[in-house]
Amino acid sequence: MTKGVSTLMEMRLLAAQAIAREAGTMARRRFVDQSFTVGFKGPHDYLTEVDEETEAFIAERLMQAFPADGFIGEESKARPASEGDGAWVVDPIDGTANFARALPYFCVSIAYVAAGKVEVGVIYDPMREELFAGRRGGGARLNGALMRASEAAALAICSVEVGWNVRAGPEQFVDLLRRVASTGASPSRTGSGALALAYVAAGRRDGFVEHHINAWDCLAGILLVLEAGGYVSDYLRGDGLTKGNALIACAAGVKDALIAAAAFEGITA
Question: Which terminus in the chain has less CB density within 10 A, N or C?
């Protein structure tokens, strides 16, 4: 990466961190006073006006700073880049079901991807005031302190998040849960894939698996796990950016074991 490109990526990282904090503060204010209505995009797929308002705010700020960049958001139509192929990928509130149910476990997720690689990843938890941030080749940090993924070497001592999605359906989810639990690992589900990945990067969890996850839910977390020394499956293969993919992310020491337990088509050790 040339010096000029590196400087531009650092600028993107700094901007994403500032914007994530602003957006998270907005979302936290609405969460605390519960001044929103709740709707559904589909079964178990919650939507509040706060999602749309927060995404519009993030998009406006990013486009002001980087007008040539593309934008892909969960709640809006994608905007192509006017130069090159770089785009911001944003989930304004990951964990909307938690947000809607007054559970304080949600976050803002902002990633920048170019040429098939995630270059910048920022996840902000406004309830805990925790900012997870990094850029490719620059490490991953939590509130400024370097993060490292877990050094676990056996799934029997691991905590693994098992993501749920309607597309996979209950039978596949329960089967995946069973396979993970049969290794001796402790499975869990918290309702925010982005925060789960941030926790893998921080060593708070040892792994994350999901049959299908959308790009806005995971790209920032993927960058963080990789920069923290963890393993991440090739999420952007095929149509991953636009249509989503299966995902495995974990401590490097349990990579092979978790891949075997998940048994996802196309992901091999």
Answer: C
Q: State the Rg of the chain over Cα.
A: 17
Give this prediction's pTM: 0.94
Strands (E), 95-168: 107-114, 117-125, 130-135, 140-142, 145-146, 159-162
Q: What is the DSSP code (8-state) at residue 79?
A: B
Task: For residue 139, count CB atoms less than 10 angstroms from its CB and return exposed for 0-12, middle for 13-18, buried for 19 or more.
Answer: middle
Q: How confident is the model at residue 36 (pLDDT cuts 50, 70, 90)?
A: confident
Q: What are phi and psi of 235, to 5 degrees?
A: -65, -35
Helices 215-227 and 193-201: angle between axes, nearest 10 degrees = 0
- pLDDT of 63 reads 95
3-state SS assignment for residue 1? coil
Domains and CATH numbers, the chain: 3-146 (3.30.540.10), 155-262 (3.40.190.80)
Local structure of 254: helix, strand or coil: helix
* Residues 93-121 pLDDT 10s: 999 889 988 999 999 999 999 999 999 99
Strand partners for 28 = none
